Structure formats: C-alpha cells, structure tokens
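Deviations from the work plan: none for this task. Representative record:
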Amino acid sequence: MTPLLQVEDLVVRHSTRRGRGTHGVTAVDGVGLTIDAGTVLGIVGESGSGKTTLARAILRMIDPAAGRIVFDGRDIARLSGAALRRARRGMQMVFQDPYSSLSPRQTVGAMLEEAIAAVGVTDRADRRQQAKRLIERVGLRQHVLGRTAHDLSGGQRQRVAIARALSARPRLLICDEPVSALDVSVRAQIVNLLLDLRDDHLAILVIAHDLAIVRLLADRVAVMYLGRLVEVADTQELFERPLHPYTRALIAAVPDPSPFVEHDLTAIEGEIPDPAHPPSGCRFRTRCAFRRQRCAEDDPSLRSIDGQHLSACHFAEEISSHVGSPR
Amino acid sequence: MPDESGGAPVLEVRDLRVGAMTPAGEVPLVRDVSYDLRPGRTLAIVGESGSGKTTSVLALLRLFPLRSDYRVSGTAKFRGTDLLSLSDAALRRFRGGALAMVFQDPGTSLDPVRTVGAQIAEMAARHLALGRRPSRERAIELLNLVGVPNPRRAVDRFPHQLSGGMRQRAMIATALAGHPAVLIADEPTSSLDVTIQAQVLGLLKRTSEAMGLATILITHDVGIVAALADDVAVLYAGRIVERGTRDEILGSPDHPYTQALLASIPRLDSPRGTRLGSIPGIPPELHDAQAGCAFEPRCPHRIERCALERPPLDPLDDASGRVSACWVHPSLTAAGSR
C-alpha cells in the first residue's frame, strides 16, 4: 500500500538576523516519515525541536529548502498556485489556540458555510445541511451554529475549529498541540473526538508535548530533537522499549499521577542547544547519560534496530539489551 | 487536616471569601475556603480554569489586577497575624518576604528592564536589611542554589537573555531571597517543556524540604500533585469540594468531581485508543443563587436533595482529617467505586 503522506529528506531553513550578518538555522534537517491512510502519527519533542516547523512545511505554509512531500501521489513540494491549493485541500490544520484561530464575530454557521463553499458546494441548502452534519459530528448541538466564537467555551471552540477543518473533507488532519490550551476535563473530550475521527478512517498527524496524549492517540510515534528524528516506532513499542536515550529521558520526565509511590524527579541535565550551533556528532550527546567518545565524532543516522523500530543512536542495541524500562 | 508533621500551622485560612465587584453586582469567586498550612508540607490546590484556585491565594497577598474591585472576607492568620486585616503598608512587609510567590510565567513577573541579579538583591536587601555588596553576593549564592550555570555571569543578565527554564529558576531565587516561611507557587511549570519541568519540580521539592517551607502549589496537573504534594484541596466553582492527603485524594477520591477529574487524565500506561472519562457540560456561572451543590448538573451520582441543599464539607470518617462535600459519598457506597 502506498502511504497517504510520504516525506523524504525534508530540509527547512530559517534565516535569522542576530548580531552581525545573517545566520541560517536548519530547523528541520533531513526528516523522512510516512503516514498511512486512517492512521495517527504522533510527533513529540521539546520546544525548539522543529516539530511545528515540520508540520508547517508539510502544509507548505513554509517553503522547504529541499526534499519531497508526496501527498496522495503528488509531490506538493514542487507545486504552486492553484495546483498547490487543490492538492493541499486534502490536508487541514487544527491549531493549539482556538481563541486566535477562529474569527470572533462571524457565527459558527457562517464560518462553516464559507469553508464548505470554498470546496465548491454552490447550493446554499446543501451548505446548510453539511454545516449541520459537521457540527453534530464534532459533538455539538445545532444551536451553536447561530453563536459566534466569542460566546463559546474553549472546548466548544476547538470542536468548531475541527469541524471547519473537516468541511474540506480532508484525508489528513494536522493537529499542533490540539489540547494544550484546554482544561483537563475538556482535553479528554477533544482527545475522544480525535479518536472517533481516526476510527472513521481519517489520518491524523498530531504534535504534542504531552506524551500521555500521544500514547493514547497515535499508532506510531516520531521523536524529534534539534531538527532531526531520533527515534520512530509503533506507539506501544516506543513507550515500553525506547531505544534512544532522549526518548527514555522524555518518558522519565513525565510526572506519574499515581499515589502511594515515591516519585523520582531525576531529569536530564541542561537544555536544548541553540539550533544555529548544534553539537558535533550526535546532537543529543551534550545531555546524554550514555555518551561516549564516538558520539562527538560520528553523526549517527536513523537506522532500523528491530524491524520498524528506528533509532539514531550508535548504541541502541546496547540500550535495548542492558537497560530496563525508563519508568 | 491530619497533623502528620506535628508542627503548628504557619498559615490558618478560615472562611475565605472573595467577590469581584461588577456593574451587575458582586460575583463570588471564592467561598468558604478554609485550610491549615504546616512547615515542611506542600498543599496542592487543584481545579480547572475559573475554579478560583489562583484568586484564593492572590487574595492572601492582595495581589489583584490594577483598577479591579475585590471584596475579601474571612481570616488568614500567618503566625497569628491576620493578613486580611492588615493595612496595605503592613502587608507589603510580608509580601515577597515571609510570604513569597512564584508565578506561572516568569516573563511577565520579572521586570524586563532590570537584571535578574538586581531583582534578587532587592528582595534580599528589603527583607533581610542587607547592604549593596552582601545582597549582590546573596543573589549569586541563590542563583547557584537554584542551578543557574555561571551565576557570576548570570547575575548581570536581563530576563530576556535567559531561557524559559532559567527565568523560572531566577524567579524561584527571587522568591527565596527574602527567607520565606510560606511559598506560593501558581502553576510554576506549565509554560515549560516536560524535561525542564522535571528539573524545576525537583528544585522546588529539594529547596522546600531543605528550608522547611510551607508550600501552596496551585496546579491542574495531577502528575505534579503526585510528585510534590502532601495534602490536596480540590476546588470547584469557588469552593473546596474535597480535601485530604495526597494518597487519600488520588488513591480513593470521594467527591464525584474529583473522581471525574482523575478519570479524565491520560496516563502513560493507558493503551492506545483508550477513551478518557469526560465530564459532560461546563462549570456553572458563579452566581450566589445556587441553592444546591454546584456540581449537581454534571454529576453522575446526583440525587434529588443535591439540587435543593448544598452539602457541607464534612468529615468522611472519624480517623482522618478527610473532608468531602457530597450527600452521596460515592466512595463509601458500592455503586460509586471506580
């Protein structure tokens, strides 16, 4: 089966002016990933890892410097104008903050009907009918169609943002921190909605710093660090047998909500380095508990350790056989 | 509250009520909030947006937004002195000194145009009556204590020259500079990455233990409660609905809201595709008119009485200091066990 989305060797550069002259920062550095139709890929990593830039580049909100983005059989990295817009319709984005991504004055109904018209539905009655169906699909009642975003709660707004994204009948939904601006109980509602959409065979790329959310949603998880993928594996495999020291550190840093246990707050030292000056060799080595001489000299590439379990660590096999669960 | 430390409370809050004065009348944000805080212990105040958790602690230090009109009643005795009846000038001596605060976003609570060293030194100078040189040395010591690398260089940096994690460490150093007895931390790590959060939580835990601080931790994150808290108070619509030790609240929650809140959080070992428990509906508008329990419209255990009469915050049993405001007490009946 050909994947729905295939990203190959994607490179995105930002040029920044800092001090004297222009510095190029490679925010995404040779990333490759695939998403099959109807599956969920999670991307995790700290701020500055490049995960949001990667999502924006896939949507061509930012132009990549190199690489291919093959969506539904077409390389959208090479398209422009109307052809790009048509090809891109199949991918829709849901942002973190439903307060700034929705127009505050338009009614929800008008907003949805506008989005439905944009994909070529000319009949007004048709548009109304579709808007009603969309609002039900995201778990809201019809009367919300007459409200403005201003009148809605955060959770209701995020549902409306999802309904608007669905109006283009996408095959891939890209969600950048879809629940991190929401309250705990409302988060659960949106996570459950995304799970329902996935059951209806919608593919989802979900970016989140909350590992527990990704664990629930994703079929497969990619871990990003300083512009590179350092580990990719099926979700359960990744959480139970992480094969990169960075993944282990991320999992170990999540505070466990269980009572009756002593909570160990050992964290990895240091912070993510300046992407303009990444360390030589392995980019994670400056914070790595397993680092050795070779790590400073030799840049590890992402390779298969065990079938579909990929890791960019020279010593992944050793970690696999010697170290227990990170928690 | 169970007295496990044996120490006398450093802060005793009783019947705290905070109302916001609006053109439409007074909106009660916090009602009937009472708790004791003991040295060396951490009380987590847990709730969602609008529950009043931040307002309830800002009221202790009268840290309200400018040009806003709040009415505060009740008592909050810090070592016997009622903070709520002090004049503004008298309260200022406690604020940032014996009672210090760490906010969610150090970007807005540190002064952007002064170096972090100057801000820490000012607190040390004001509350410990140190001179210029000793207070600067104290700032360097504190930056070192909170794990800022190169403290002698960092002391002359401006907040924007530091990363988010380092700014939060500097904020904690500022709070510690006045030798506080009570540390109030309002969502201290929610703007940080999980790796940096683990560093800062570890720092808070180590320093509060080493200095014997009594800590109020405001958070919505149950993982953070589990990692840092000794005691927990759950706030809903401005009132405490349940209070007990960490293990009581997380291990066998009684109030239906606490139960629902805990069921809605994903855990790292939940298998893929697990549907989370979600609470139907939204929190109520904060008006006084409500006769019954504020959670009644969303509650799976509600009975007729719940809409008519507000349940008092009563002890759950004789043995512990555990209290829960519910007529049904689902944790005591087979129907309510999770």
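Residues 11-98+180-268+275-336 of chain B form a domain with the Rossmann fold fold (CATH 3.40.50.300).
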